[in-house]
TrEMBL record:
Name assigned to this protein: Aconitate hydratase
Native organism: Aureimonas populi
Domain Aconitase/3-isopropylmalate dehydratase large subunit alpha/beta/alpha: residue ranges: 79-589
Family membership: Belongs to the aconitase/IPM isomerase family.
Keywords: 4Fe-4S, Iron, Iron-sulfur, Lyase, Metal-binding
Domain Aconitase A/isopropylmalate dehydratase small subunit swivel, first and last residues per copy: 721-846
First-tier enzyme category under EC: lyase
Cofactor requirements of the protein: [4Fe-4S] cluster
Catalytic reaction equation(s): citrate = D-threo-isocitrate; (2S,3R)-3-hydroxybutane-1,2,3-tricarboxylate = 2-methyl-cis-aconitate + H2O
EC number: 4.2.1.3
Source species, domain of life: Bacteria
Length: 920
């Protein structure tokens, strides 16, 4: 072999499929030539092993790195060895994609400033960006809702879309899937993914497993199709685009055994909520989960994709399903190239990557198991996806949760007396005299509103819309309810936002869309809506009634995220549920209704109608899916996927090699990361006499840290926009403005539900500035500290940074002047992103230590020495000086985990590192 590829284990072979030859790196040959036991590895680990065999170069990947992958077996699946992993491609959505393209454009400018060729700044691996996060549910419940929402979307996002169209023409190896096509995960599953990837190199075609990283944490959905992928921050994705490997530790792999089959009346959603609860309890953060066992043969590939999608919710890096007959059948059904399908099957069998029942199970770090027959209908809420509640207990559990949710009853919003209050009709599940059931007037309406009322019922993208079984089930529930004369409660905002246009095709083909329309579930758009906070505003009278009376309003959605403050600022309790249950709760109208026992309403003849009367059988669903979900739908809908609608084609693109930045733009601005940058990094500095910007408790999510959802007029970001002549009605969302650092840094730590423990009983992004003691928005305090040249640190509890892979949670942190985050533990992606932006993550080195155990109040000063000579995972010491002058010394473990991460940190971030390398 050449010097660039030593092929230490003599694994390079040729595979011939239908007369075409492919070079591949044969795991079976490698096993014979020194990698004993490779065949017993989990399938996901085989993908990593092949990646290393193919990438061996004696520089980033050595023979020892490859051996470590198999040594994993004798180490009983322990994580530890650092490897350089090279994904085949990158997937982006527009919220996280826009700032990545902004950074690429800024790197071109910086490259010119350093005297280098800006044309070098291009993706070096294929990148697909799917515009799917910008549609909002402004219009709903009408046949023209979709067209109106599309018009508003283009009007709101014209600047961003112009910029992305420029990017699609300016950069090589970069494709954009226009708005209105579908969500990135489903477009990836149905069209972009190949399961086995190929590339031309030196006149040969190399075949290897399809792998990717994505700038959305739910990139994991495609693991259901045996494509190894997970979410990373935009920062890490940009490095991959620019040819850098991902530095990672060989993971632990938890085996999840499935047996049996789902019982009648349950759905894939019920299964995934059960799996999420089990894996959260097990503790799989930073680990791979791989599913195995005979039960896999009783799940459709769409069921597997639903489970894989929820990996961020159960905390794993990914939830992997091996290639089997269902993978091949799905590729066939979704219109993939016939030769590619033959290649996938031949390659998987040649590599020992094809799963069949009755074969010895792989070796795992640890295992757990589930009998599918024990799964019951479920919801998850009111705040976290792992908080599963059996449907039979949903009403009683909501009653228990209500007391906590009511926590901050406003003065004057005490419930009316039983004599004055109006109550819901029969079947409401509420009893007169119960404080929570007092109903308050809604202006201009002939109904009231109460705690527990469902004001949003959304069949939203992502978790469920890859799965025709649950969508057809929703259509059948709507049909049966409509036939019986049931209607949705008037206070419910209903919406249907499928993951791809194919969904519309099969719902119309099955004649179910008209039934969904009749129940108010009209198409509102193709994209991520309610699940990411793009639920749009509630009707003004509904919003007023909720806020004036401090009601605990509820949402029921078929998404995957229900964190506080995420779905809608007016909604305090959010429940994840299957699409048919979303329809049922829209009819019931309240979480107090026990829909397993109470009637949902009355039919045309005045008879009670129960859930069982409108719930479809598994056979009914299967028959419709068989007839309507066919190969031709996928072929026609994806025939010209990059062309876009007439709105997209009308966008005028200007600019050439570098972007023509517009100083007046409030959407896209040239970020300051590269200002004053030289060819050599400045020496590292210790952190001295830093002030504390925030003290936070456990489970602070990236939603809490990163700007997301609507922009408040009376916060720093709103004030900035108003000062730039943007009316509040045109604020759009933080996500839409991710290309403007001025907006985003003002919204960092500004979530309406975040609680900074430096302040008593105050929610929202506020802090106390020291030594003045003044209470002010976190952004304002950070700017004041910057003027005073005072560095900042943040303290937090366990699982800091859980949730979506939001790069702005790290970018905003560094732009506010935060040098270090000290927590009890981190979620994987956010820790990596902090390092990628030059912020040092630390955990307390001694068990049981926390900022609370140290008695911190927020008025202390923090010094951390040793950063000038820091090494990966080094134990260091912080000196914390209290206001009274006393000090305490605390041991910290620096979570800069690898040598590559150390290089990024030394350079001030991963972008600086890559740019210097390319410019040199």
């Amino acid at each position: 072999m050449s010097e660039t590829h030593p092929d230490s284990f003599k694994s390079r072979r040729t595979l011939t499929v239908d007369g075409k030859s492919y070079v591949y790196f044969d795991l079976k040959e490698a096993e014979k030539n020194g990698l004993e036991g490779a065949s017993r590895l989990p399938f996901s680990m085989k993908v990593l092993l092949e990646n290393l065999l193919r990438s061996e170069d004696n520089r980033t990947v050595s023979a020892n790195d490859i051996r470590a992958t198999v040594k994993w077996l004798s180490d009983k699946g322990a994580a530890g060895h650092e490897i350089a992993y090279r994904p085949a491609r990158v997937l982006m959505q527009d919220f996280t994609g826009v700032p990545a393209v902004v950074d690429l454009a800024a790197m071109r400018d910086a490259s010119e400033a350093l005297g280098a060729d800006p044309r070098k700044i291009n993706p070096l691996v294929p990148v697909d960006l799917v515009i799917d996060h910008s549609v909002m549910v402004d219009h709903f419940g009408h046949k023209d809702s979709f067209e109106k929402n599309v018009a508003v979307e283009y009007d709101r996002n014209g600047e961003r879309y112009t910029f992305l169209r420029w990017g699609s023409e300016a950069f090589r190896n970069f494709r954009v899937v226009p708005p209105g096509t579908g969500i990135c995960h489903q477009v990836n599953l149905e069209y972009l993914s190949q399961t086995v990837w190929t590339r031309e190199e030196n006149g040969e075609t190399i075949a290897y497993p399809d792998t990717l990283v994505g700038t959305d944490s739910h990139t994991t959905m495609v693991n259901g199709l045996s494509v190894l992928g997970w979410g990373v921050g935009g920062i890490e994705a940009e490095a991959v685009m620019l040819g850098q490997p991902i530095s990672m530790l060989i993971p632990e792999v938890i085996g999840f055994r499935m047996e049996g089959k789902l019982p009648e009346g349950t759905t894939a959603t019920d299964l995934v909520l059960t799996v999420t609860q089990m894996l959260r309890k097990k503790g799989v953060v930073g680990k791979f989960v791989e599913f195995y066992g005979p039960g896999l043969s009783n799940l459709t590939l769409e069921d597997q994709a639903t489970i894989a999608n929820m990996a961020p919710e159960y905390g794993a890096t990914c939830g992997f399903f091996p290639i089997d007959k269902d993978t091949i059948a799905y590729l066939e059904a979704t219109g993939r190239d016939k030769h590619r399908i033959a290649l996938v099957e031949a390659y998987a069998k040649a590599q020992g990557m094809y799963r069949e029942d009755g074969v010895e199970d792989p070796v795992f770090t640890d295992t757990l198991s589930l009998d599918l027959s024990t799964v019951v209908p479920s919801l998850a809420g009111p705040k976290r996806p792992q908080d599963r509640v059996a449907l039979t207990d949903a009403a009683s559990e909501f009653r228990k949760a209500l007391a906590e949710l009511q926590g901050g009853r406003k003065q004057g919003a005490a419930a009316k007396s039983a004599e004055d209050a109006r109550y819901m009709g029969e079947g409401a599940g509420q009893t007169p005299g119960d404080e929570s059931c007092a109903r308050y007037d809604v202006a201009g309406a002939d109904h009231g509103l109460a705690d527990g009322d469902v004001v949003i019922a959304a069949i939203t993208s992502c978790t469920n819309t890859s799965n025709p079984n649950v969508l057809v089930a929703a259509g059948l529930v709507a049909r049966k309810a409509h036939e019986k004369g049931l209607t949705v409660k008037p206070w419910v905002k209903t919406s249907l936002a499928p993951g791809s246009q194919v969904v519309t095709e099969y719902l119309e083909k099955a004649d179910l869309q008209k039934d969904l329309d009749a129940m108010g579930f009209n198409l509102v758009g193709y994209g991520c809506t309610t699940c990411i906070g793009n639920s749009g505003p509630l009707a003004e009278p509904i919003s007023e009634a909720i806020n004036q009376n401090d009601l605990v309003a509820c949402s029921v959605l078929s998404g995957n995220r229900n964190f506080e403050g995420r779905v809608n600022p007016d909604v305090r309790a959010n429940y994840l549920a299957s699409p048919p249950l979303v329809v049922a709760y829209a009819i019931a109208g309240s979480l107090f209704v026990d829909i397993t026992k109470d009637p949902l309403g009355k039919d045309k003849d005045g008879n009670d109608v129960y859930l069982k009367d409108i719930w479809p059988t598994t056979q009914e669903i299967a028959e419709i899916v068989r007839k309507t979900v066919t190969r031709d739908l996928f072929e026609s809908r994806y025939a010209d996927v990059f062309r876009g609608d007439e709105h997209w084609r009308r966008i005028d693109v200007s600019g050439g090699l570098t972007y023509e930045w517009d100083d007046r733009s409030t959407y896209v601005q040239n970020p300051p990361y590269f200002e004053g940058m030289g060819m050599e990094p400045k020496p590292l500095q210790d952190i001295r006499q830093a002030r504390i910007l925030g003290l936070f408790l456990d489970s602070i999510t990236t939603d809490h840290i990163s700007p997301a959802g609507s922009i408040k007029a009376n916060g720093p970001a709103g004030e900035y926009l108003v000062s730039h002549q943007v009316r509040p009605v045109d604020f759009n969302s933080y996500g839409a403005r991710r290309g403007n650092h001025q907006v985003m840094m003002r919204g960092t730590f500004a979530n309406i539900r975040i609680k900074n423990q430096m302040l008593d009983g105050i929610e929202g992004g506020m802090t106390r500035h020291y030594p003045s003691g003044d209470v002010m928005p976190i952004y304002d305090a950070a700017m004041k500290y910057q003027e005073e040249e005072v560095p900042l640190v943040v303290f937090a509890g366990k699982e800091y940074g859980t949730g979506s892979s939001r790069d702005w949670a790290a970018k905003g942190t560094v732009l506010l002047g935060v040098r270090a985050v000290i927590a009890e533990s981190f979620e994987r992606i956010h820790r990596s992103n902090l390092v990628g932006m030059g912020v040092a993550p630390f955990v307390f080195a001694e068990a049981g230590t926390s900022w609370k155990s140290l008695g911190l109040k927020g008025d202390e000063k923090v010094t951390i020495e040793g950063l000038t000579q820091v090494q990966p995972r080094q134990t260091m010491e912080a000196v914390i000086e209290s206001a009274d002058g006393s000090t305490q010394r605390v041991k910290l473990l620096c979570r800069i985990d690898t040598l590559d991460e150390l290089e990024y940190y030394r350079n001030g971030g991963i972008l600086h590192y890559v740019l210097r390398k390319l410019a040199a």
